[in-house]
# Entry
Amino acid sequence: MELLVSLCLGVMMACGVYLALRGRTFPVVVGLTLIGYTVNMFLFVSGRLHTNLPAVISPERLNYADPLPQALVLTAIVIGFGMIAFVVVLALRAKGELGSDHVDGEKEEVR
Amino acid sequence: MNHWIVLPLLLPMLVGSIIILGVNKDIAWHRTLGLANTIIVALIAGYLVYLSATGPIQVYVLGDWSPPFGIVMVLDQLSAMMVFITSLLAVFCLIYATRGADKLGKNFHALFQFQLLGINGAFLTGDMFNLFVFFEIMLLASYGLVLHGGGVKRTKAGLHYVILNLVGSSVFLVGVGIIYGTLGTLNMADLAVRISMASPDDAALLQAGGLIFFAVFALKAALLPLYFWLPNTYGFTSAPVAALFAVMTKVGVYVILRVYTLIFGEHAGVAANVLHPWLLPIALVTLVAGAIGVAASRDLGRTIAYLVIVSVGTLLAVIGTFSVDAIASALVYMPHTTFITAAMFLIADMIRQQRLDAGSTLTPDLPVKQHRLLGLLFFTGAVAIAGLPPLSGFTAKVMMLMGVQESSSVAWIWGLVLVSGLMGLIALGRAGSIVFWKTLPLDDSGKGAYEKKPHESAPAFSLSYAFPAIALIAISPMLVIFGGPLTEFAHQAAAQIKDPVQYVTAVLGSDISALLNETEGGR
# Structure
């Protein structure tokens, strides 16, 4: 499971970085979203990987999953949503004001 | 538990929310609420400074969940001082904003309060994840403030700023994940204890975590490879916002100082002093890059934005030696540079408003209308920022140069700090002479050919309009007059920072902090 999870995270991060380095706002936003998801997954995994373990303490269970990363991830997801929403709106506004969806606001080259 | 500690967070949050609810109310209502609250927060922050200087480190445990499980706010001398600087600066920036800049968009005053909440929170928090949360609050509010007023330049600079900081936030979370995964806690005091007992197997992970944090803090503080967003963002945003942002880079400086003395300091066992080889060279290179930027920029706003980078480079170069004297002198320099760069942003804005054609670009134009007032302010600001006597820049710089004498790289620090000061002085002198002296001969109507007349339609400023800039400049001689108590305070604060045991004792109790002493002795 560890190998699979780390592979997934690596591939997602690579895709996110690739997209974020493109010069257009739409791929950049998608890339940032992917990076955000990867980081949230990573944060979640920092509490170790378990199957079928509760995060809530109860007298019947001997082992628990660590609840703290789950709480952290919830917060991080909410913040991430807010940020992505903001970037989308800003990208739209930049498209309107700069007349181009290039992150530097440069006009389309004629090919 | 002292409830005053949490008020610099609660009041801006409450008042900001109230202002949002009344978004369609009269602007006077927004201004009254915003200003009144900012002044109250500044007074409370002043009391907190007094509290921190006269007593031990205080801890506010939210919800009474005993540390390390709950969320804590920690008030030591460093955080109290930073909160006070922020609140005082915010008062003057807000007064300047009420002269008209706040009317360009609807939610300026609410965003301003949330900005205060974020900055104060970042200074007071004692928990790595909460540091992340307060960073995000600070950043979201700053995104709104940067874009306030709109315009092509602001949108473009804002887009870069937002995207870069989003990447920065992700990197921060990676650091948090690594540190939590290896140590199992995020409370700063608890981290300090556990990292000192960490096994050598985790050394690589912990060091990586520490340096990943540094990447994020360097982005906030605008250190060398990560400062390219700053000149445009600060140069093109509205003046009161740019002036308030003079303290935002200091948030980066503050967390570097906090995290790398408390958590990754000398007590940190396998990850001890992880930043020491990196900070000083990076800060010095930043200083050089900033000085070159100051000399090269052709716009008054950008010149001052580069001066912010120079000040961060100076601060961190001095802090990079990690000696008590050096840190103390950096703490004396901190208020000086924050207030003076903020004042310069405001002065540059007033100059821009009176130069209708050239604006803040450094090309010859008609003379400004009130050349006496603006010239005097600009001159005083330039003297203060370049570190000439008799203003506070001089005393602070002398203290810093004395403070780093023990360091092995003293020649580099002395040389680069002094040369960058000279470059700043030359650049500001050139800017001043273009703005005030090298003016266009005009009025070609007959005999008035050599009479230089300012723009008739440019706004004239009363003394009350210029009050925030004058007051911010006037803080500089104050820092000299009250230099004795300030220096004493800074030395105490630096001693407190360099001794994590005090911090851990305050948060976790003396039983736990004894562990820290033990590991240090055993090593």
